[in-house]
Design brief:
single chain; mainly alpha; globular; 13 helices
Length: 283
């Protein structure tokens, strides 16, 4: 599999595909208004772009180093990373009730994947690094959205994500050259002879861009921890989807884990409202 040999190059090219798509939307007639940002705005976006690039590159590397299910298990801990950072670094407290929901969500994903567990230290470390980058990205993105005047100059959340993707791609180039620069010739040969690689890379880049633009829109209306919880729900769907595509059996334990994970996400989204209503009734 190409991604096992070229994880950094694959992740960078996926960002390149998203960058090209974002630029196309600015150039196409009646598609999307261009942003009118200053150099100071670009500088403020660099931390978000770096964390975005780091989270994606580390995730691809983790999936190349071990089983897909194991990578999803470790990535399921992302809400815990986001909650810790929100609580102790960004001073945005998470309620005790929501903290209590996180083990349910993470446990559901673990249960859904437990029979496929293929442990690898490199995958574990890379996925944890990806979680850390993703947690910082969510909080920094939220802070960026709240910066005075930036929203008007950006024009839309879509423009903000497009600029983040372009900056992230540019930042990934030195990392690719450092890690896999000696393999560029091998990849070029593979690109010429393997049409599946071309199709899958372009498709995955577009899907990745579309999903993360939607996630950025979600972040604007919610918060970093809630977005991470939604990401964990996505991982449950990924596990089931991979099983269907690859023809793997959906045994009861996997289905139970998926149900628990999705149920935990739903509980997380409504727990504070439920408790507040209960408190009002007893008052």
């Amino acid at each position: 599999m190409p991604h096992h040999r070229f994880p950094m190059l694959i992740s960078s090219l996926q960002l390149a595909v998203g960058s090209i798509y974002g630029i196309f939307l600015w150039l196409a007639p009646d598609a999307r208004d261009r942003p009118h940002v200053t150099m100071d705005d670009i500088i403020k976006m660099l931390p978000v772009a770096f964390c975005f690039m780091g989270a994606h590159s580390a995730s691809v590397f983790a999936l190349s180093a071990g089983a897909v299910s194991f990578g999803q298990i470790v990535k399921a801990a992302e809400p815990a990373f986001a909650a810790v950072l929100s609580q102790f670094v960004y001073n945005k407290p998470v309620s005790s009730a929501k903290w209590a929901c996180l083990p349910i969500i993470i446990g559901g994903v673990i249960l859904a994947s437990v029979k496929e567990l293929d442990f690898a230290w490199s995958a574990l470390i890379s996925a944890c690094i990806a979680n850390l980058f993703a947690a910082f990205k969510g909080n920094e993105n939220k802070k960026l959205m709240e910066t005075d005047g930036l929203k008007d100059r950006m024009g839309s959340v879509g423009n903000q994500f497009a600029l983040t993707t372009i900056l992230g791609f540019l930042m990934s180039i030195p990392l690719v050259l450092l890690r896999e620069g000696s393999k560029l010739g091998q990849f070029a040969d593979l690109w010429k002879t393997n049409p599946i690689l071309k199709t899958n890379l372009i498709a995955s880049g577009l899907w990745f861009y579309g999903y993360n633009e939607l996630a950025t829109m979600t972040l604007k209306k919610t918060g970093a921890v809630t977005q991470s919880v939604a990401n964990t729900a996505k991982r449950v769907i990924v596990i089931v989807g991979v099983a269907i595509v690859l023809g793997e059996s959906l045994d009861p334990i996997k289905l139970l884990g998926c149900g628990i994970g999705i149920g935990g996400v739903f509980l997380y989204s409504i727990i504070d409202q439920l408790l507040s209503k209960k408190a009002e009734k007893t008052a």
